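Much of what follows relies on a compact textual record of a protein's fold. A record is reproduced here so that you can trace the correspondence yourselves:
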Amino acid sequence: MKTMFRVRRVSLVVGILILAAGVGLAAGDGVDPLAVEGPVAAAYNVSPAGQLAATVAVPLNLSAVRAEDEGREAAGLPPRFAVPESVWLTPGTAGTWVDLDARYVMWRTRITAPGALSLNLGFTGYWLPPGARLSLYPTDFAGLDDRRGHPVFTAADNEDHGQLWTPVILADDIVVELVLPRGERDNYRLELTTINQGYRFFGEPAADKAGTCNVDVVCPEGNDWRAEINSVGAISTGGSTFCTGVMVNNTASDGKPYFLTANHCNINVGNAASLVVYWNYQSPVCGDQSGGVLDQFMSGATFRAASATSDFTLVEMDDAVDPSLGVTFAGWDRSTADPVSATAIHHPRGDEKSISFENDPTSTTSYLQFVVPGDGTHLRVTDWDTGTTEPGSSGCPLFDQNHRVVGQLHGGYAACGNDDSDWFGRLSVSWEGDGTPETRLRDYLDPSGSGAVAVDLYDPQAASITVTPLDAAAATGVVGGPFAPLAHAFSVANNGVAAVEFAVSTAADWLELDTTGGSLAVGQQLDVTVSIVGLADNLGVGAHRAEISFVNQSGGSGSTTRDFVLTVTENSLGLIGAVPNPVSVAPIDIRYTLRGDAGVRARIDNIRGLAVRDLGTMSGVAGNNTINWDGLDDHGRRVPAGVYVITIKALGREYRTSLTYVH
């Protein structure tokens, strides 16, 4: 489910002016409840919210709650910000119904938890008909600029799992408001089963916020990471526990909403529907480490895969990402190389988004161990050079020097004031996981089975290019040629929302490009052909690697590189072929060269691959050699005119060429 607190910007000449003035309308004055941004009740002559009967949550014993939190931390469980209370509340068991006008009816109730820092609700039964809406807001709602939150849900939030989990509202007294078309009065499902009382984080005073060594992402240190910053979100599960996670790209770059976090954040098949991801929760001013607003979110997900080995969980959000959220899809790298530097983007203690830097290489170890490579499941960040991580950062992505995710935070000892280490579960291990679709990433992040080792960030709202295939081009041949294949095509596509200019180049003089770039309209694709040219004949034995650079010149995402690898081997066998060709008179001379003396086997097939003549095995000498074919088949008959294929094998190599026989 996806929504935001302010989901509609409809101009109501009368309705909004009266709403702003705090005056109710009489029934029948033409207000469209679905177009009202704030409480619908404020636009009608109904009882004030403060006069509604309230369901009062059981007060928390904060001493006991804090003791439980210490035990949870010792057990490696994700931290909490709220305590759930099981209830059973429906419009049939609580609240008040009222007729708004001839078209709509409304039900309201209050939920209070005196002293709570926030409230959020879990509806394990939710279904609304078209034209209905559910709103939550503080009982003393102060208008559209009320930063405490006022989320709205509609039939667009109906899901197969039938649940709805709300974001937090920073108040201890809230109203639940349901508006239905009169004809749908009995056609809905709304069952509130969990009230979550917030007692820390998410709006708590600065005295108990994350350490001051954390760096707000809005600070200059984040300038080179703006695209990646938008892929990271704070999460809550079951309305109670929180971690960090990242939206990740897949090899199709199709915007499928896969969200990666840590296994120990305890998201599973049973509770994935309760996942809420908060986007763009960050300080507006560098150094404040406060002032973030929890007004952009996505709710509900389906569990896809998890493994404790590398501590990862992957879910798929219920709906596509709302473009207005500005969310990007982080690239990743599943290779086993240790990054030479590392960056983490995270929500320490569930607070505003921060960024941390390790300027030195990481190492491969076991979890919480220092021996290299250990069991190879984790990347160790020796010590953060800038920033740190804290509880709540768990599940955050670790980016390598190429801005690609290589793991997610499992745990460690880093904190403000120390130089201790953190450990991230390796994406390279998570790729195959424990060998099943439910325990690995491969099936979801590479849906086509391309075998790609890395993929770049995808920004659906930028002037974005995507280059396929994702893997390197490869060719082989002997010293001096020939090489095969001689050409390789890459496709550059514009998957963004605006036209884009791109450039392509290579520094290798043995490669030639058929274009240096161009313009792409939205949805357009252009093939770039890379060909091996004559200068490759001068290359020696070995693997020769050239880099092809694709640059988005329109300021958006997708700039990337692809390798072209040409493997050159010793020219142990060279087939020159029939001389002359075409040939009309037998015997026919077939010429070849050898690097050294060797046995040579030769045969002739027709163009359909059927055997014509087995010339047997003969002795060849270093240098030039000739085989004579008398133009007869294995039965001694003269072969008809046509095209024939000559195959010669020697020194572990095989060559084929064709000849045309006319007579």
